[in-house]
Design brief:
Elements (H helix, E strand, L loop, with lengths): L2 E3 L8 H10 L8 E2 L4 E2 L16 E5 L5 E2 L12 E5 L2 E2 L15 E9 L12 E6 L4 E5 H4 L4 E4 L9 E5 L13 E6 L12 E6 L19 E5 L12 H4 L8 E5 L19 E4 L25 E4 L19 E3 L6 E3 L12 E3 L4 E4 L10 E3 L4 E4 L3 H4 L5 H5 L6 H11 L5 E2 L15 E7 L4 E7 L8 E2 L6 E4 L3 E5 L8 E6 L6 E4 L6 E8 L2 E7 L8 E5 L2 E8 L3 E5 L9 E8 L2 E8 L5 E3 L1 H4 L8 E4 L2 E4 L3 E2 L5 E2 L9 E4 L4 E4 L3 E2 L5 E2 L2 E8 L2 E7 L8 E4 L6 E8 L3 E6 L7 E8 L2 E10 L17 E4 L4 E4 L3 E2 L5 E2 L11 H7 L2 E3 L8 E6 L2 E13 L5 E6 L6 E4 L6 E7 L6 E9 L3 E5 L2 E5 L3 E9 L9 E12 L17 E4 L6 E8 ...
Parallel strand pairs: 4-6, 5-7, 6-8, 7-8, 8-9, 9-11, 10-12, 11-13, 13-14, 14-15, 15-16, 16-17, 17-18, 18-19, 19-21, 20-22, 21-23, 22-24, 24-25, 60-81, 61-82
Antiparallel strand pairs: 1-4, 2-3, 26-27, 27-30, 28-31, 29-30, 31-32, 33-34, 33-40, 34-37, 35-36, 35-38, 36-37, 38-39, 41-42, 43-44, 45-46, 47-48, 49-50, 50-53, 51-52, 51-54, 52-53, 54-55, 56-57, 58-59, 59-79, 61-62, 62-63, 62-70, 64-65, 65-66, 66-69, 67-68, 69-78, 69-79, 70-77, 71-72, 72-73, 73-79, ...
Length: 1089
Amino acid sequence: MTEFVNSATVAKNYDCILDITTKSNQISKLTLNQTTSKYEFCSTPFYCNSSGYMTSVQFTSYNNYIFSQSDFSCMVGLNSLSLYDFYLSSDFFTSRQLPSSVDTLYVYRCNGGRINGPVNPSLKSLTFYPNETFTATIYFSYLKTLDRYYQNDNTPKNTLQLKYINDLTAPLVIKKDASWIFESTNLPSLNNINITRLVSYASSNFDVSSYSNFSTYNKVNTIYIADLNRYLPLIPFPSSLVELTNNVITDITFLLKFSTPSSLISLANLKILQDFDLSRVGTLFQFNGAIPFDLNSIPSTLKTFLFEDSNLYAGLPNLMSFRNIEKISLRNNSIKGELPLKWNVNNKIKTLDLSRNQLTGTIDESYCQLGSLDISYNKLTGKLPTCFSCYFVNLLTAGMDPDASIGEMEAMDFTSGFTGNTFDNLDLYSDPPPCSTIVPNLRYDSIKGITYLFGKDLGFSDDYVYSTDLYFKLEIPSISYYANSSPPPLGYYIDLTFRLSSTIYRVSSNPLPPQIENISIVNDLVLIDGTYFSYNISIISIDIGGYKCNVLSSTFYKINCNLTILSSLPPVVLGSIRVGDLTTSLPIPTVNNSNVDTTQCQSLNYCNFNGTCLNQQCVCDSKHSGTTCLEVKCSRTCNSNEYCDLKIGECKCNSGWTGENCLFANHYASSVSQNGNLISFYGWFGTIHNDLTINIGSGSDSTTCLNITESDKIINCTLSKKPNNGYQNVYINQNSIEWIGKNLFKYQEEIQLISCFQNCSGNGKCNTLTGSCTCNQGFTGFDCSSIIISNENNSSNNNNNNNNNNVEISIGNVDNNVVSTIKNSETIFEIMVIKIIEQNINGETIKEWDLKTNNWIADIDKNNSNIFIFNQTLKETECIIVYTIEQVNATKEYSFAGFNYSIDSGSLKMSISITNYPYSSTLNNLQIQMKSQVATTSNINDSNNNNCNEKVTQIKDSINDNLLNFISIKKNGKQMYGRFLSIMLSDDRSTLMSTSIVSTQNESITLGLNLPYCNKCLIDPDFSVLLSSDFKSSCESDNSEVGRKSYVIPVAVVASVVGVALIVTVGYLIKKKKSSKDFNNKLKALNKA
């Protein structure tokens, strides 16, 4: 046979291959392509690729042609050459004519060829199986280029006589994992060579004295010495090997017969020894009938110890002496006596072979924790533990099955490990009964993320258990497995099967309480059907009318128990079924041939497993209440400041209380007033005021309150000094609880001067007592920067007519918010409340509410058609927001929170109230965000009016610590003003608030109105739109009085609701004098836009 592995498309090597196959008479085995008149070297058994060269080739010769290396020199690119049954020239190994790429040479069953000099230096691996007898000496210098050397005697009568001589005079550097294997008449020295693995087989005429060379083996990792053909006489154990110091030996195998030592042999110098195989030591290699090694000297690294074919007449050694050994074989040692009564679970042995000895007695169930046990051909009796018998097969039928699976073959090996004894429950040549003792349980470890399978008779390796959901690995034989997994949901279960068993076991790692479907009585038996039971009857408890029912058997689906006094009980009694820590209570019948259908309990959700359903009603246990026993009773009576949380059964504090047993007020101040140095804080402070202190501001500059008098709702005090200017935090401490009111206090001088917006723009005089401007003739606005437009010809079309003729209720939608839109010609001004944000003391957002319009309910004041009211309740709360917009059609005087002010005709007055907001903490406060923006529309065809006006948007503000704060937005010669008082009503009392700029963009400004902690909050801003002083009514007459008098400012309010969205539109349109009908039509068109 010839094979080409990863060989070329043989065009480059065709002639070369044809020549070799012809000389070896292998050409007769190939098929000639009649079309191409060439042999198909790229078809079976030749394998080609597109690389252009062969890399590995195997030839078999069918004649006596003698090949030399030159016959293969034409095979360019070859890496590996294998020759079977070839006749080779005597210099085949030492010649230099192979392609330099060849580094691996296999020569099997060949004649000729001698290693009589250095092998071809390109070779790194040489395998040499001579097929003829000859005698030779091979020097290490011949092999020094080889990393792998494998020589064996393939002569018919094993008569090859090779002797290996170490002639190296300097250290030889070879590959780290170098391995030399040979059969020789001596054991060579290993001076000057650092080899990883040495295997030596003894030939006939072996020189026993060469074993003294073991003293040179300190740098070998693996030593394998064998006398497979039993050429050697009894020899002493090579003490020179175990006496080596600083050795690196990890594995020793001696398949030799040793004589009896004069004393125990120490292994102390073999400090890193891992495997020690003495499988053919002979009956004389023992010391007083015991293992001839000092067991106290066994290195802690040793994992495998095989000591076989001796005569340990002293009995079974103490297995605990083998400290860390995991695999031990004491096979065929004539050991007498009994096994230890119990297997020591602290022993680390996983595999134990005690076969072919003379052991007597029985085997205990504790031996189930051994992963592999072979006790065949002893004199053991009694009953084998079920952990073993569950996995036996009929050796007669299984052995005759040619299609037996790997699992079945392994089961045969497992069963064979118990043959040759007289166990009561082991019939090796009959079909074993089905196993009924497997008890699987599941448990999930949330810390490790591991699901554990544990129980009884679960098997001895990973492949004993199978699940489609999880891959289990053996942890403790027969007892436990583990699998990496994610947290199981409630009620999660998996199905398991075990080797040789057709039974499907269903188990849960996060079970529900027992789900009962039916209970029936047959004589003294109670038969319970359902789910989420267990195969482990030790964790199941059945109570029937106060009596324990003896559990006979159980699976995931069925429990059978026995109670002899059933007939003396009432027909139906209250009972319970407990599986692990989970219990289900329910009525249980006691009358023979009766049953209880538990479907009546399903409608009550089985009383949530916290009670019993009788007559379709739940009777709750002592810890629960409610119609379905879902509510959890509190363990103590809650006081007047508490309520019982029925979800968890604990007393919780009512709103406004905190501390242990809720005895202390969760105090806060919602408003503060000042009368000189007398300060009054209003809020909730409770009746206990231990160690009450109040400070305004923080640090060394803080101001302390003195002369404190307190009640549950008011605290009065006097200031120790004047606080710092601006808004200051207030710190109220009592009962070891600190409350902080952010920016709650601002010191007010007795005479407070209020600056005017833009200092009245030079067009008026500022009244610093009220912060309002008295404008010069022809000007108006908060800052006197707007002009007054008169209408001499038709005053009836002014504001009053707007109220009567231009009010329209229709449908519309703007950006999911309540929007006040002020429009004139092409200019649109919009005001909207966009958000409510709960913030902590550091200004960090705790919760944010977008005021979506689908929650708004719109209405019009029945007493005043110019007032529009919108309200909504925040989702899943009792918080109510009321947003009121009033269209002011005539200049009016207003008073709010103790401050008097006037609003001009044509303005919008707004108010926002928030009631019962559910704060996360009394330390938090609210911020209302209002957005004002401007845009341009062309839906109304009056664009000529704005062609000569400045189209760039200008935004100005005076947001500071003033009592009054202003913004203005100017575009197309029109200007909208917004006025914000720094006063609000907090729980019906006047107190300070602050205004801040959240963001400013090219066409908009967003303000934050910062409110203190309050249960009822009310603010009151207002807006108006006027022509700016540089407004041009037309390009032709931009400064003429006539041009100005030809315009009026009609006013309209449109409250719109589209679908679930809502808009408030207040339109200020500057129009040439036309009819009311024409104006209303255009207002409708504007609203549709």
